Amino acid sequence: MLIASLALIIGGAVIYRIGVRGENGELPRQRVAGLRTRATLSSDDAWYAAQKAGADLVKAAGALAVIGGLTSIPVYDQLPVAAALVLGTTAVMLSLVVWGGVRGQAAARTVSAQSASDHHPMTDTDGV
Predict the structure, then answer these.
(1) CA dist., res. 85 & res. 47, Å (int)
(2) Is 61 within 8 Å of 15 (Cβ atoms)?
(3) Which contacts of 76-83 are long-range, i.e. CB under 8 A and separated by 24 or more positions?
(4) What are the helix (H) ranges across 27-78?
(5) Alpha-carbon distance 107 to 50, whole Å?
(6) What does the alpha-carbon distance between residue 55 and residue 49 come to, in Å, rounded to a whole number?
């Protein structure tokens, strides 16, 4: 269980940092880190909107993982307690990341829809 605790701490720190970079617009569009879906990868504007929209939940997931990992270290030799802490923390962390992804997906779709309507000639009704 000690390995799992350390994995939560390290993974949580990485996830938190990704959330911070996404919130600050410092996470470039790519296929390795960040909220990655077809909509979020469709344009830079959609990417940055998605990362910003989901950043608070991604950061919360990372912080929770670090705290859960640290909390489980003192009880690593008590398997039922340590397992409950690690598995419970992991479940909540994943739920937060998915929730952040749903928010990010919605933001990316909004940006894409706005961009499409801004460039669509049929949306100009001034001459009608």
Answers:
(1) 34
(2) yes
(3) 76/1, 76/2, 76/5, 77/1, 79/1, 82/1, 82/4, 82/5, 83/1
(4) 44-72
(5) 5
(6) 10
pTM (predicted TM-score): 0.83
Tens place of pLDDT for every residue, the chain, 128 residues? 789 999 999 999 999 999 999 999 999 988 888 888 888 888 999 999 999 999 999 999 999 999 999 999 999 889 899 899 999 999 999 999 999 999 999 999 999 888 777 665 555 555 54
Q: Residue 51 is encoded by which pair of tokens?
A: 């990362």
The answer to whether residues 62 and 14 touch, using CB atoms and an 8 Å cutoff, is: yes
List phi, psi (to 5°) of 108. Answer: -65, -40
